[in-house]
Amino acid sequence: MSQDTTPAAPAPEPAANEPVGLGKPSPATAPVPTPDGLGTGPGDAPGTDPSGDEGTDYAAYDVPAGTVVVQGPSLLARVGAEVFGTFVLVLVGLGVAMYASLGSVGGGALGVALAFGIAVLAAAAAVGHVSGGHFNPAVTLGAALAGRTAWRDVLPYWLAQLMGGALGAAIVFIAIPSSLPEVLGKGDVRALFSGVANGYGEHSPLNALVTSGTSGASTAEFTLFAALVLELVATAVFVGVILGATDRRAHRALAPVAIGLALTVLLLVTIPATNGSLNPARSFAAALFSESWAWKQLWVFVVAPLLGAALAGLVYRAFAAEPPVEDNLLEDDDVYVTQEDVVVVESRQA
């Protein structure tokens, strides 16, 4: 498809009380100027190519002066931003979590939570204006249900987020020293990497700590129900914060900070129980390079965050939504007003 614009003859003055400039472009009803080579001269049927190419159709419509035109980043640019943002989030988060328990080298649960929070803050500030700064399939679903993101973008965003997360986890995995698992008594690299995967029951971080501290005499397992509830509620709160902080009525310059702090404190709540997911892309990325138990429990960290995000999106739409507009969270659109009447001609292959 190609587009061309040429100035049209001055439009007649609007009648009294007639709205100007904010409606959709209306189809041209009179002969309109066309780009070079299309012509509307004698013998040329309007909307056909005089060169004889009958496989191309042309459509023309008027854009009146004063029309507000909104143009955002292309889908390719937005998908690329989601790959990058999710890559940064998973690389930093899992990279810190990988060595969090190694004394002064690691940062413990607080270090992990801060790593994820600061990473999402930085990524949102860097490319949030391009894609909206989702970096999480749950956020994309919640935004779509809230009417803030187009449904046609959901699948491309999900694929981009899974790809970015997998790349980030791969970097962390291949950087693990080959001798480290043996030193730590973990068997192999996959067994060591499984420590950053999300899990419940015997794979809860708190249970591993209690079991290790008591030489197996005691356990502190979080049940499947507890894991589902914690992940669902935490993700609902997180997505609710995102929808509120990025609302046009809020001070959006502070949105990345609010989102990063919210993720940090919610991870501090969930890390002892499930290692803190709130993000199916993060859980998927960790499971890719972990032992088989991580794959068996992965569904929990896909279903619960998606349900929590759906709940937040529906509540926002019901009680807090502004007039319908797809502003896609942090994404910036280019908005301009036409200064004169313009005719747009589009070509379509039949």
TrEMBL record:
<feature type="transmembrane region" description="Helical">
    <location>
        <begin position="222"/>
        <end position="245"/>
    </location>
</feature>
<dbReference type="InterPro" id="IPR022357">
    <property type="entry name" value="MIP_CS"/>
</dbReference>
<dbReference type="InterPro" id="IPR034294">
    <property type="entry name" value="Aquaporin_transptr"/>
</dbReference>
<dbReference type="InterPro" id="IPR000425">
    <property type="entry name" value="MIP"/>
</dbReference>
<dbReference type="GO" id="GO:0005886">
    <property type="term" value="C:plasma membrane"/>
</dbReference>
<feature type="transmembrane region" description="Helical">
    <location>
        <begin position="298"/>
        <end position="319"/>
    </location>
</feature>
<comment type="similarity">
    <text>Belongs to the MIP/aquaporin (TC 1.A.8) family.</text>
</comment>
<feature type="transmembrane region" description="Helical">
    <location>
        <begin position="108"/>
        <end position="127"/>
    </location>
</feature>
<protein>
    <submittedName>
        <fullName>MIP family channel protein</fullName>
    </submittedName>
</protein>
<dbReference type="GO" id="GO:0015250">
    <property type="term" value="F:water channel activity"/>
</dbReference>
<keyword id="KW-0472">Membrane</keyword>
<keyword id="KW-0813">Transport</keyword>
<feature type="region of interest" description="Disordered">
    <location>
        <begin position="1"/>
        <end position="58"/>
    </location>
</feature>
<keyword id="KW-0812">Transmembrane</keyword>
<dbReference type="Pfam" id="PF00230">
    <property type="entry name" value="MIP"/>
</dbReference>
<feature type="transmembrane region" description="Helical">
    <location>
        <begin position="257"/>
        <end position="278"/>
    </location>
</feature>
<keyword id="KW-1003">Cell membrane</keyword>
<keyword id="KW-1133">Transmembrane helix</keyword>
<feature type="transmembrane region" description="Helical">
    <location>
        <begin position="83"/>
        <end position="102"/>
    </location>
</feature>
<feature type="transmembrane region" description="Helical">
    <location>
        <begin position="155"/>
        <end position="176"/>
    </location>
</feature>
<dbReference type="InterPro" id="IPR023271">
    <property type="entry name" value="Aquaporin-like"/>
</dbReference>
